[in-house]
Design a protein that fits this description.
This protein is of the alpha/beta class and about 375 residues long. It is about 40% helix and about 15% strand.
């Protein structure tokens, strides 16, 4: 699989397939992918989305560099790109060109929009969160708020990987390549589809998360005696019964007006002060131990940094130990999948710029003098 990608959406697509076992070659500029050098909120992108990949560093603005790319494409099963609209075609590496050279190729284009009036617009994760209603649903009225992670980039990349897998399966039947596409805007609208359906079912628009009436009688964050915040969600009648039994709320169990969730939703002014007082009278360790014993859905309000040493993630093998180009250790989560009962392993760490350039060119038929000439002309880079 070849990656002509950058930032998050493209690399996340390749990461899904790389973790599943694909041989992914990242085609970078001779100076390396710009994501390697991002700071501020983008400082973690490279480390998270680029394990299990080889790297070839090539100048695609040169004819020699494009010839390397064309040879790579001719040998590939899958090609993924997420350049701006029209860029890959201007390089001569668009679907119409490469499919003639490699009819079995699965070509995946990751864009801001699928075909339609917006398809040539530039887009970003945040742009489509705003356009697609997700920021509106997350924030307060009049104060849209994007999600706290690159959820649309990652989701769009994952949908691209799903499309690739489906196209590979189809190719096994008929031997033909496919052009598949995934996009940020449509990924966002997919997420808010439940709210579109809410309007059709109820005749009313769904208000933002922060001000809506929850479907569940208890679906809240509570503060414990030692100042820790804990979320509790009681989403079934059985949840309610177990909670009341655990905390001795006999009067609630015996109250005929609290038998169903719908009844409890409309009785929150009676129940919530009691539940709030239970949390406020115990420390977090005690209350969470009791909630776990009662098999109830609860969670401490963690920060991302709290997960680095989370005992469940670490002991289950979910976290991968990597090393940055500067030699800094970094621990990031693996693909959230078990395969035949096993977690998917880390097969390669984070590649250095052009780490595999020499070996890949040899495999493409370039000899040592040709590679030396390309290096001297700054068409390629790498050790």
């Amino acid at each position: 699989m070849l990656e002509f990608v950058h930032t998050v959406m493209g690399p996340s697509c390749g990461l899904v397939l790389a973790d599943l076992g694909a041989d992914v070659i990242k085609v970078e500029a001779v100076t390396g992918d710009v994501t390697r050098r991002l700071t501020a909120s983008g400082a973690g992108y490279w480390s998270m989305f680029n394990r299990n990949k080889a790297s070839i560093a090539v100048d695609l603005k040169s004819e020699d560099g494009l010839e390397i790319a064309r040879r790579l494409v001719a040998t590939a099963d899958v090609m993924v790109e997420n350049f701006g609209p029209g860029t890959i075609d201007r390089l001569g590496l668009g679907w119409n060109n490469v499919s003639r050279r490699n009819p079995r190729l699965i070509f995946c284009s990751l864009k801001g929009f699928l075909a339609g009036p917006y398809e040539n617009r530039m887009a970003l994760d945040e742009v489509t969160q705003m356009m697609g209603g997700l920021a509106y649903m997350t924030g307060l009225p009049g104060r849209p708020l994007r999600a706290g992670a690159s959820v649309i980039d990652v989701l769009g990349g994952t949908f691209g990987a799903i499309a690739i897998l489906a196209a590979l399966h189809a190719r096994n039947r008929d031997g033909k390549g496919r052009f598949v596409k995934s996009a940020l805007f449509e990924s966002t609208t997919y997420l808010v589809g439940q709210h579109m359906a809410y309007l059709a079912v109820t005749g009313k628009a769904m208000p933002p998360m922060a001000v809506r009436l929850s479907a569940w009688a208890v679906y809240d964050v509570f503060q414990t005696q030692d100042g820790v915040q804990v979320f509790l969600g009681l989403v079934t009648d059985n949840n309610w019964i177990r909670f009341c039994n655990e905390f001795g709320l006999v009067e609630f169990l015996e109250d005929a007006t609290l038998k169903t969730n719908i009844q409890r939703v409309h009785a929150r002014e009676r129940t919530m002060p009691v539940i709030t007082a239970i949390f406020a009278s115990s420390n977090a360790h005690e209350i969470m131990a009791r909630l776990e014993k009662a098999q109830l859905p609860f969670a401490p309000i963690n920060r991302p940094e709290d997960l680095i040493d989370d005992p469940h993630l670490v002991r289950s093998g979910q976290m991968h130990e990597l090393e940055t180009a500067e030699g800094k250790p970094v621990r990031v989560p693996g693909l959230p999948i078990e395969y035949s009962g096993l977690k998917l392993p880390k097969r390669r760490g984070l590649p250095k710029i052009g780490q595999d350039t020499h070996a890949i060119l040899l495999a493409l038929g370039y000899d040592e003098p040709a590679i030396a000439r390309l290096r001297a002309a700054s068409v390629i880079s790498g050790p």
